Amino acid sequence: MKHEEVACSTQPLDGSDQAGEGSVHPNASGHAQTQHTPAVVVQSVSHRYGAKQALDDVSLTIPRGVTVGLIGPDGVGKSTLLSLIAGVKIIQAGKVEVFGCDMANKTQRQALSHRIAYMPQGLGHNLYPTLSVYENVDFHARLFGLKAHERKERIRRLLAATGLAPFPGRA
Asked: What are phi and psi of 129, to 5 degrees?
């Protein structure tokens, strides 16, 4: 089986451009990207669960280097939208790009999977009560095949970003 090389955005996740101001990076389809390229682009996305319309023609752009929250009552499609952005649900209608990768393209989605952290709804069902905060995150990082040095740095950043840095040993 031949492994296809995917060149989605190579920019750091914080939006900085280590290669210099105005640098251009190719995405998977060969289009140029700059530091101004959005992290996420959702265009005309719709999603159904049988007769239930979860998302109806949703479009949004999320710039790099920002924190975004989705707020709304139960059943309005927040989890569905996040699942589509994370690449864990099949896109039924519309287009989703993350860091320049087309999330409908299996090869691009797989290449991007190591850069996306996603914990679905029902958080307690995805954690092991006998493991500490750090051990739970490390366990899931290992499932994605991250090397020890990369896991350690990513876990440090994740715990800091979520306010859990003071509690890595808490079960």
From this structure: -65, -20
**Cα–Cα distance, 17 to 59 (Å, whole number):** 26
Would the pTM count as exceeding 0.90? no
Angle between helices 133-143 and 148-162 (to 10 degrees): 130
Q: What is the DSSP letter of 34?
A: -
Amino acid at 56: D
Phi and psi at residue 19, in whole multiples of 5°? -80, -10
Strands 93-98 and 40-49 come out as: antiparallel
Map 77-118 to HEC letters: CHHHHHHHHHCCCCCCEEEEEECCEECCCHHHHHHHHHHCCC
- In Å, what is the CA distance from 43 to each residue of 116, 130, 139, 151? 20, 42, 34, 32
Per-10-residue mean pLDDT, the chain, length 171: 47 43 45 70 97 96 90 90 92 96 93 79 72 90 84 91 90 85
Per-residue DSSP letter, 41? E
